[in-house]
Design a protein that fits this description.
Length: 336
Amino acid sequence: MTAHNEVADHAGREEPRAHAKSEADHSQEIGRIGLGLAALGRPVYLTAGRTDAFGAPGDRSVDAMRARTFEVLDAAWRLGIRFLDGAPSYGHAEDFLGAWLTLHPTRRGQLLVSSKWGYEYVAGWDPKATVHERKEHSLEMLEKQWPQSRAALGSTPNCYLVHSVTPDSPALSDPALLARLRAVTDEGTQVGLTTSGPYQAQAIDTALSLPSSPFSAVQTTWNLLERSAQRSLETAADHGWTVIVKEAMANGRLAPGGTPEVDRLAAAAGTTSDALAIGVALAQSWAHIILSGAVTPTQLISNTSAQPLIMDAAELDRLLIPTDRYWAERAARTWS
């Protein structure tokens, strides 16, 4: 069973509606919100507002961040979130998640866990490191990280993604690597890819066109500022793929106070900027899971207050940033 069908079983997913939703309806939408651990598993990241949430980078020890991760995971469980997403490049995220699952062994069967391969964390928990992660899409890296992730998590992930695939990635062309990924699917794990950068649509389209493709899931950046991959995501959904939206809040740019125009639209809609950003994503019928990158229970509660929100297309289009500029600005963000 693919992940989006499993989520539908858990959450009773429905098409978005414009009118107010009942409490039961809203619980179904919370089932479509997942928690990404990118900003919780390492001391610094490019998401805005980390100092407000965590204090100074020097205060973010492994033990402190593990405790914070457990706190957010506990809140996610209470809120009804059942999709959790990590990666080896997210510092100790897989270790933290695996340790939390060990504390709550009955929960694993009710969760969908997604992880990735293709990047490794190289900063050594140094907040001042200039290089945080290293990318390598090779068969050797897959064979190294696949057992590492299963050991860290204490189980096999439900969904396993190639991390940050671009059109030139060997994951789209290496016959031996593709054959090994097909073997992973034969073992019962859904295989997919994540995308990043200005050529996300091209990467997705190439993956969709592969003969005997191992891929049936995609995790892609899509938000109010950057929606260049939308047609490709719609096509992926039409092909039965699980579509996961990441960076729905543009790494904090769409949090309250981050973008004045979004704040204005949120106030007019009677909601908060983060709930508006996630709500617009929830309103996309092709999007099965919307990841929250919350790093505190308060942020997560606000994120999960989102309900599907259909807004005027012209008004939304005025928020768009040219794709190349968006990704250049993202690359220039300071890790803090």
